[in-house]
Amino acid sequence: MQSIRCKAYAPASAMPAHRHDEPSLCLVVSGRYEETQRGRAVAHGPGHLLYCAAGEPHSQRFAGEGARKLLLRPAPAALEFLDARGALEPGRHVAAPRLAALARELAAELDARDDCAAMVVEGLVLELLGLFGRGGEERGRAAWLQRVRDYLHEHQAGELALEGVAREVGRHPTHVAREFKRAFGVSVGGYLREIRVQRAERLLDGERASLAQIAIACGFCDQAHMSRVFRALRGTTPAARRRARRG
């Protein structure tokens, strides 16, 4: 028997390292957050579907707008189906436009009160499991797209250009831009801005460095550049966030 529920997480909140007794899938409905597992932090947004193995420790930090997620505990038969396709690797995640739409549809059906909702939810969950088993995207593309994400995380504080990123994965820049947006629902530049802002948030909360020092450490041109991007993504400035946290 499968169970599914929708859970909301407060803006700018954090969840320390924890484990689940049973394997589960998590589908992001709205908002953004960063999950750290096995020492690696990965940013997630709407349409991202993640697998969490039983007993696997992981922690989460939610962005300024918070997040809503669907938490699914698959039935044993569904787990066998996914395992047979090599889909149950700890920390594995996929993203696709259809998954973002499924997240919205499932959230709406869970709120519905009519007697057809349960049947509709069952059908949507089966589609979700099928997409996860297939990988959301074909495996060859998923592999090099993951390398793009890894490269952005590893070099987020440096000067990055789409041409250089594309060269690292042996693809044309136009192809990288198009497929990255299709897979993750955000442009390469938008993804880079998000992970830089997330790093800035961590430094603002835990360091006594100046705003100018934090800006350079996070890959922004200067403090003013960081403030503009931070305000655009979080609706506030780094200075205001720091004052609010210390207050």
UniProtKB/TrEMBL annotation:
Per UniProt, which keywords does this protein have?
DNA-binding, Transcription, Transcription regulation
What Pfam families does its record include?
Answer: AraC_binding (PF02311), HTH_18 (PF12833)
Superkingdom of origin: Bacteria
Matching entries from InterPro entries are given as: AraC-bd, AraC_XylS_family_regulators, Homeodomain-like_sf, HTH-like, HTH_AraC, RmlC-like_jellyroll
Q: Which residues form the HTH araC/xylS-type domain?
A: 146-244
Transferase as a keyword? Answer: no
MF terms per GO, please?
DNA-binding transcription factor activity; sequence-specific DNA binding
- Keyword field contains Transcription regulation: yes
- Name-wise, this protein is Transcriptional regulator, AraC family
